[in-house]
Amino acid sequence: MPCLNLSTNVSLEGVDTSAILSEASSTVAKLIGKPEAPAAYGELLSIGGLNPDVNKKLSAAISNILETKLSVSKSRFYLKFYDTKVSKAELL
């Protein structure tokens, strides 16, 4: 599942960004031999509160939303979890 994220400091005012992203996406898919089918990738960062049970529930709920609203199959969705712990230095 290729997922291309692009950032730029170039002004995009008046630029057809969807055409650029479409061309870039098809180029990536072609060169790495992966289908250009609907897919999604997400990252969830939380300071505490995440555990295997919660992660499973979150994955199911978000994949249902993506499947319903964007037609992204549950098998074409990946969610990465980051459970960060608070340290005293972060509280200062």
Automatic annotation (TrEMBL):
Signal peptide position in this chain?
none
What name does this protein carry? Uncharacterized protein
Matching entries from InterPro entries are given as: Macrophage_inhib_fac, Tautomerase/MIF_sf
Q: Would you identify the family this protein belongs to, as annotated? A: Belongs to the MIF family.
Lineage: superkingdom: Eukaryota
Organism of derivation:
Rehmannia glutinosa
